[in-house]
Specification:
This protein is an alpha/beta fold. Helices cover about 30% and strands about 25% of the residues. The protein has a five-stranded mixed sheet with strand order 2-3-1-6-12, sandwiched between helices. Strands 9-8-7-10-11 form a five-stranded mixed sheet, sandwiched between helices. A four-stranded antiparallel sheet has the order 14-15-13-16, covered by helices on one side.
């Protein structure tokens, strides 16, 4: 359990250990470690007593010359028969001064079940790779979690998981090991059973990744079974900031939902994303999965600004256009993806501000079946 207390100044971490667990209290700068020493001196009972009589008057506080604040222990009434950390966490949260992050526990796999008539199957996928180059780097780990969901986005049961390591033909650099925790020794001799992967994703109506533009090309290089699937991106297709989230990285989303986990390992990230998608959104009547499905079902128009003047590149980039170098079989050009009802406004922008003449640029209609492909 991790407990955080806000402060404008730097924070120190106070750790109080017993045989069962380790609890971290992040307290305002200057809090003396004498509290830690006192807690350690009374052992497991002392740790539990930290959370008893929370509303009792505090002990006297004396300030040392070095601006060190020493909080003298007060006498507590009663004690826990056994440590009750969830009660302690709720007591801290009730003060309004603490936010408690709980370790994420993956949902159990439901093996024996009767599928609902209207349910569909989605697979969350995450890959760890030797780098970012989708034409040269290779997958070194794949994780997947399959689950049921309804048309309105309600998440049902976890019905399967898959995780496998793979020894690549290119080196795993120290930087990749630092980011993923995967070493060359861990993957040595390991392969991914591609038949098992294809069987796992075969019943899926939707494949979800938190960065589908990265994961889909690597997955399609791994096996063609991913190619005909509809894909959704939980990073790009949900407006997280509108619902009070401070960032769209998975770690930020998970912590604001109240959990922490072992990040950057494939299947753990899949379990984490599932809980984020299932969590209620602030100010909304539905969960994130509902909003993701709505985005995935919408078609977009991809407009290619071929032959646009070179000196207009900054204007296009500021508008949201991205550059495609042409190596993927698509035009060597700036392009943008917009909603269908924004087409006329985008044509007006291109004709008046970019080309300054009447043009009909190459336009494609893109659905979840085509979105996020390497050649898109």
């Amino acid at each position: 359990m991790i407990v955080e207390s806000p402060s404008k100044d730097n924070c120190h971490t106070l750790r109080i250990n017993d045989l069962a667990t380790c609890t971290s209290l992040v307290c305002p700068a200057g809090l003396s470690t004498s509290l830690l020493q006192q807690a350690e001196g009374v052992g497991m009972r002392g740790q539990a007593d930290l959370f008893l009589d929370y509303g009792a008057p505090p002990g006297p506080i004396e300030t040392n010359p070095a601006d060190e604040i020493v909080v003298k222990a007060r006498q507590h009434r009663g004690s826990f028969e056994a440590p009750d950390y969830e009660t302690a966490a709720r007591m801290l949260e009730a003060t309004g001064d603490y936010r408690v992050l709980r370790r994420l526990t993956p949902r159990p796999i439901v093996v024996s079940r009767t599928p609902r008539q209207d349910e569909k199957i989605a697979v969350i996928v995450d890959t760890e790779t030797t780098g970012l180059d989708q034409t040269w780097d290779e997958v070194i780990e794949i994780g997947m979690v399959a689950f049921s969901y309804s048309e309105d986005g309600r998440i049902g049961d976890v019905i399967g998981t898959y995780n496998a390591l793979r020894e690549p033909t290119v080196p795993i650099t120290p930087e990749i090991t630092r980011l993923t925790g995967i070493t060359p020794e861990m993957v040595k001799g390991h392969t991914i059973d591609l038949d098992a992967v294809e069987a796992f994703i075969q019943p899926a109506h939707l494949v979800i990744a938190h960065n589908a533009r990265f994961d889909r090309p690597f997955c399609e290089r791994l096996t063609h079974g991913f190619s005909p699937k509809a894909w959704a991106c939980s990073h790009a297709e949900i407006s997280w900031s509108e619902y009070g989230f401070e960032g769209s990285k998975l770690g930020y989303l998970l912590s604001q939902c109240g959990w922490f986990h072992q990040g950057h390992r494939a299947v753990e990230d899949c379990h984490a994303l599932l809980e984020v998608l299932a969590a209620p959104l602030c100010g909304a009547t539905a969960c994130a999965m509902t909003h993701l499905l709505a985005s995935a079902r919408r078609a977009l128009l991809r407009i290619w600004a071929e032959g646009s003047p070179f000196d207009m590149k900054d204007t296009l980039k500021k508008r949201g256009y991205r550059w495609n170098d042409g190596t993927n079989g698509q035009p060597k050009s700036w392009f943008i993806e917009i909603a269908e009802d924004a087409y006329e406004a985008e044509m007006k922008f291109l004709r008046q501000e970019i080309y300054r003449r009447d043009v009909e640029p190459f336009t494609q209609r893109i659905t979840a079946l085509e979105r996020f492909r390497a050649a898109s």
